[in-house]
Hints:
Blueprint: H1 22-36, H2 41-60, H3 69-76, H4 80-83, H5 86-107, H6 112-121, H7 131-143, H8 164-167, H9 185-201, H10 208-227, H11 230-233, H12 244-249, E1 255-256, E2 261-262, H13 276-279, H14 289-294
Antiparallel strand pairs: 1-2
Helix pairs in contact: 1-10, 2-7, 5-6, 6-7, 9-10
Amino acid sequence: MFGFRRKTxxxxxxxPVLDLSGDRxxxxxxxxxxxxxxxxxxxxYVTALELKSALFVEVLGNGADAMTETEFLDLAAFIAPVRRxxxxxxxxxxxxxxxxxxTPLLTGAGDLEQRLAGFIAAFPQDKAHxxxxxxxxxxxxxxxxxxxxxxxxxxWDARVGTGVIREIWHAEDVDAARIExxxxxxxxxxxxxxxxxxxxxxxxxxxxxxxxxxLLSHIYAGYINDRGGxxxxxxxxxxxDPMLHTRRMLGLDAVDTETGRTxxxxxxxxxxxxxxxxxxxxxxxxxxxxxxxxxx
Length: 296
């Protein structure tokens, strides 16, 4: 732990010790401010995350029982690992099958970890369905951001030892470091409290949940830019925009503003078009075309 924590978010009672590097965090935060400036600054991305969360709450705030297929696809379009794979799954299960899995995730018995584990277990346990954890994690986080930290694989995946935690771990040789930290709720809650304390010390006094999400995504975007292998670049095509991968980690590139269509492909190859619940929110989620082209 670095020594300037001012926690405002609760920690679980037995949270792990995270040996994070304050220097790495400061460099990443400074780079985020600089990289985001040409496309509206950090505040624009905070607004985008607020609107994404508002959409998730609008659709799922009263549970998943009334969610339509179009509304589910609207949400999936904002989750990058999901939108490339959800078409065949939705075709096979139907919206009733997806609702049946999502309802206990959001409102079922058991604690949060049990509900997320149950959601993952409702799908095949193979490599092709590892994105299911990301779907469950984002549904939980963006419907209740103050209560649930972001628990996606790119934040930390203990099975393969990759994620943001490794990129900000305090070690002389981070690549060789053994980070024996589980990817459970205690770890993610501890990480968020650490990031919250860091941001408070840096003078961020509001919207720290969204600043924290942005900082985490920008840190991992740096990994993709610098060291990402082909398996990552399949999801995150390399371009010149320094915020491209940061947006994609959080699904904020859901719509192509030049065509008005989403990046989610249906089973027949067509691009999903947003329903009415999302249409009014599209403008802030992707930089204007002239901004993107300026970095190409």
